[in-house]
Amino acid sequence: MRRFFEGARAARNLGERALLGTGKLEGTAVDAAVGAAAGAALALGAGAAPVAAGAQAVTMPAPAALVLDPQLVDAGAKLPLNKVYLAPMEGVCDPPMRQVITRYGQYDECFSEFIRVTAEPCPHKTLLREVPELEHDGKTDSGCLCRVQLLGDHPQALALTAQRAVELGARSIDLNFGCPSRFVHHGGSLLLKEPELIHEITARVREALDPAIFLSVKFRLGVLSATELSTVVAALAVPGVNEFIIHARTRKDLYKAEGLNWPAITTVLDDTEAGCCRGIAVVANGDITDLASSCQCRAVTLCSRQMVGRAAFGTPNLPQVIRGQEPAMALASVLDVAWEFGCELQKYGCPEKSVLDRLKQFLGYANKYRFKEVLSPFFYTFCRCQTLVEAQQLLSSKKLELSA
Ligand SMILES: Cc1cc2nc3c(=O)[nH]c(=O)nc-3n(C[C@H](O)[C@H](O)[C@H](O)COP(=O)(O)O)c2cc1C
């Protein structure tokens, strides 16, 4: 363990040196959170933004999209990757998608879409509808455990809902303080500006559950700025919380590439070693799309646990890829997975039009995250198809073309 941390520190120092080498970090006192944020591997784009650090104003480079640094990638490749999770994605990672995607890549756990809890605890039947895995020992058919994610602002209702999920067979619960949607009123990442409330929610849920039930909290770096992170983390560091899953962006950053801020996560890891979060594992999330980005993320954040979301559709075996165990699945096989997903949706009674829409969504992610050059013209043709027969024919002919 100790050796791991030493290796990880070395990697971080490497990242800091890489940054300092660019000469873009100005000022003498850099706030720990944001200083580390500047520290490692994000691309250091033009445009420096002033950041208040204690009493001193420090000029920080504005975060830009990820640029790979071969030294960091190499350093990260030497660090362990102990767990890989499939991210919760509302409207995307629903039960049929979880069934299909978890057949590939050996995820350590997948997550339900967020289940909205109001002042009334969720009825059992809602939980079973949202997480049908609960009727199968809490697992997908391929044996991947599904964590139940709850979102709400009512501590007692959330605690009771978590208890009900456990009664139905859930073994792990996650609380969502990361959703940035404006349609989620007083919930998700908006609550990060109310540390007392998120503390209360987390504490009530933890108290309501048997200590053997795993409890995680998924959140962003803050509402407006990563400088909020230390307050957020202090509020969420309730004894008995098992894991922090951190999407390395603020609420304001939504999903913008330039908002990605992996290094901010390092400060939390420092707390988990010695500070208020002792014993809480940290999972890094955000733009982990392939082996290189996973390695760089390890080097920058020092986290041995990662969560992947949008890139999982272009690379269904992504966990094995980022573990260095398998090459990324070829496009022809990804098209097979897409069709398998279409068939799974039909098993769930999904109408033809919705199946088509979901197939387009799947291929949209594959196109965006991996196969833009080879898939784009096909994708736009596919988007015009009106029937499943047509969709299947298009997929088959694309596969034939790929094998020619
Ligand atoms: C369409 C969509 C739906 C999402 N729904 C959820 C959700 O229900 N719960 C949650 O905690 N995060 C949700 N997220 C955020 C993801 O879990 C993840 O944190 C984010 O996509 C960053 O990871 P990635 O870059 O690997 O995709 C959603 C993201 C997207 C794009």
Notable features of this structure?
404 residues; alpha/beta; TIM Barrel; 3 domains; two-stranded antiparallel ribbon; 44% helix; globular
Description of the structure:
The protein folds into 3 domains: 2-66, no CATH class; 74-322, Aldolase class I (TIM Barrel), CATH 3.20.20.70; 331-403, no CATH class. The chain has 15 helices and 11 strands. The strands form 2 sheets. The chain has an 8-stranded parallel β-barrel, surrounded by 4 helices. Strands 1-2 form a two-stranded antiparallel ribbon. The protein has helices at 2-22, 32-39, 70-77, 95-101, 124-130, 155-167, 195-208, 229-236, 264-274, 291-301, 318-322, 331-347, 352-369, 372-383, 388-403; strands at 42-53, 56-66, 83-86, 109-111, 115-117, 146-152, 172-177, 214-220, 243-247, 281-285, 305-308. The structure holds flavin mononucleotide. Residues 87-92, 113-114, 149, 176, 178-179, 218, 247, 285-288, 308-311 line the site of flavin mononucleotide (FMN).
